[in-house]
Amino acid sequence: MNLARRSTETRTGHAxxxxxxxxxxxxxxxxxxxxxxxxxxxxxxxxGDGAVRRGVPQGAHVHSLTVRGANVLEEFFPxxxxxxxxxxxxxxxxxxxxxxxxxxxxxxxxPLGTVLQTSRPFLEDRLRAKVCAxxxxxxxxxxxxxxxxxxxxxxxxxxxxxxxxxxxxSTEDIDADLVVDAMGRAGRGATWLATLGYEKPAEQRLRxxxxxxxxxxxxxxxxxxxxxxxxxxxxxARPRGLVLTSxxxxxxxxxxxxxxxxxxxxxxxxxxxxxxxxxxxADAREALRRAEPVTDVASFAHPxxxxxHFHRLRRLPDGLISIGDAICSLNPIYGAGMTVAALExxxxxxxxxxxxxxxxxxxxxxxxxxxxxxxxLFSTLADKSMPQVPGTRPALSALLAQSFRATMRAAxxxxxxxxxxxxxxxxxxxxxxxxxxxxxxxxxxxxxxEPAES
Length: 454
Ligand SMILES: Cc1cc2nc3c(=O)[nH]c(=O)nc-3n(C[C@H](O)[C@H](O)[C@H](O)COP(=O)(O)OP(=O)(O)OC[C@H]3O[C@@H](n4cnc5c(N)ncnc54)[C@H](O)[C@@H]3O)c2cc1C
Prior knowledge:
CATH class of the largest domain: Alpha Beta
Structural class: alpha/beta
Bound molecules: flavin-adenine dinucleotide
Radius of gyration: 22 Å
Mean pLDDT: 94
Shape: globular
Number of domains: 3
Distance between the termini: 42 Å
Number of helices: 12
Helix content: 25-40%
């Protein structure tokens, strides 16, 4: 991907991006190359102080950025990862400094690449500063988008009505040549299509009933030995997971999750720690015993993964696209949402550079569907290995679980299998790598004799 900026003379028009989360920021970066002016409209008032904000409550929970996601941000802003590290973010060498336990097996700790670890607010604040440093990007925060503006025949969206939150009388209409809905998983863009007389995109939903609880800590120096992150994934018999990662400036986040109500993590501090102790390694248990909490326990429910099939719609108005969680909101335990958002923004840029805004919604949705497809497939397959996820045939669940379990057993000893698993998780390789003959042979050699459980 060549992300050199366009010269200012060739840019025209005004693009409006609704929502300044990760997908809105990445989209604004892509649009700033092609449009004369880009305006970001964000409902929250943005303090940029590293705090979790109302519009992104998930920011209290672990937000791992995959290697692929970091690469896209680095292509948008060369030197970005190094700047974040200089500003206090953690860089970890996977897998030697990242302990991953999947389906009960500890992946072999071979060095495979560098991972950027920060909290979501830290990453977002710095990304926003970069995006808004462009002279043609303006941020209007403390303003919410309330309705689309259109031509009288409704074939083109021409802007958006905005208001200050809680002050419906404070409306202001903003005209634009392109409106980008980056307002998150609630799906306002899809609803707007319906209000304009278009079909709503078909929604694919997978009920996962996952809930998170998280708390940030200061850990005694060296408490985790060489490890900068510990990930313990859920298994069918114990559908609970734990992530403990070093973020910025000596702060760690402990996120716990579970599939199904009986396994949702508690928020009472003592119970929260007990839940963690059942999953954590001996080092992590000891580290947590000595850790100093710096926040309360925050919780978040994620009832289902959603994918909206905009690319299948036969009629679309010009001048409106949705991006990021507004198209696809994955089960967060796979840590791919921000990467998918960045990949979609890169796809938007490619579409604009290839053929401007001509037939843009259709061309963009096709590219976005390709950008997100493997992440959707991989994460929903992994979800379906959990018997707690309703709607999957038990035989399929069991087969998926056994094959993941066998692959992870192989990855515990075989560096090539560990690398293939890591490439799939970090989105640097295709999950299809896991179907290579060497990996299949290793998986079959490790096929569990006992029935699926751990
Ligand atoms: C518990 C949890 C943990 C997660 N962990 C990870 C992880 O480890 N790694 C990862 O990559 N992803 C993770 N994700 C997913 C990730 O948060 C999203 O995929 C990612 O933030 C992309 O979202 P977005 O920018 O499309 O939407 P959001 O981040 O939801 O941003 C939407 C923005 O739109 C604004 N907005 C909403 N309505 C309006 C309006 N009417 N007008 C103006 N502005 C509006 C909001 O204030 C917000 O700023 C996690 C999600 C959850 C729930």
